[in-house]
Specification:
Two copies of one chain form a homodimer.
Chain A: H1 14-27, H2 30-39, E1 44-45, H3 46-53, H4 57-69, E2 73-78, E3 81-86, H5 89-103
Antiparallel strand pairs in A: 1-3, 2-3
Helix pairs in contact in A: 3-4
Chain B binds a DNA duplex through helix 4.
Amino acid sequence: MNNYSNDKMNFADENELYDLAELFKVFGDSTRIRILSALYGRECCVQDIADGLKMTPSAVSHQLKILKQSKLVGNRREGKQIFYFLADDHVRSIIAIGLEHLRE
Amino acid sequence: MNNYSNDKMNFADENELYDLAELFKVFGDSTRIRILSALYGRECCVQDIADGLKMTPSAVSHQLKILKQSKLVGNRREGKQIFYFLADDHVRSIIAIGLEHLRE
DNA sequence: TTATCATTTGAATAATTGTTCATATGTTGA
DNA sequence: TCAACATATGAACAATTATTCAAATGATAA
């Protein structure tokens, strides 16, 4: 795992801190975290996620839209289905470090 | 069809994911992120933070309590003042990676 | 085209939450 | 002891937001 412990904040200004809070707000919902968790190892279509989390496709779609806007997930169409996947390793790192914190 | 419920993503169970969302919820507020930012390089007492962020000590104290409960900050008393500081490098890492994500 | 499946969208409701204000607690020095 | 300062707490209000429901869009095959 990457070690960011010596990184500086590199002069984050007020606007950037605001955006940062908005980013974590996206992680800060149990439904969205469960969706990200479902996508951690593999891509899934909306119905997969809805089935797995026992939610309506509509509710899942609403949250996927938010995750996409924050660039935490990407998607690709395959016929009628749209598959979603984690956007990059930042997402995995943030989740992994969060879990480390909880498990201490 | 796709069923991920019994194999992947068992790195965290439902309860842990709920706690994880609660953790990120703490990061997901601009006031608290600004407080963490203020504490990134040095410890501060409540009044320092209130002055720096142009907030009332009461509002700062409310948020510091939440940060403390999530173990994102620690504190120590020095006379009348109570100094707060970032609890550990997980906090710095999460902030640093979040900023990286924004800056991409 | 039409039917059907998969997903998205918009509006409304319900629940959560950050700030303010007033008050309380805790610490120090006179 | 008291007074002054620093911080914490509780209640109430205002703003935000996740889910539901109904309807719309997009894609495929007959």
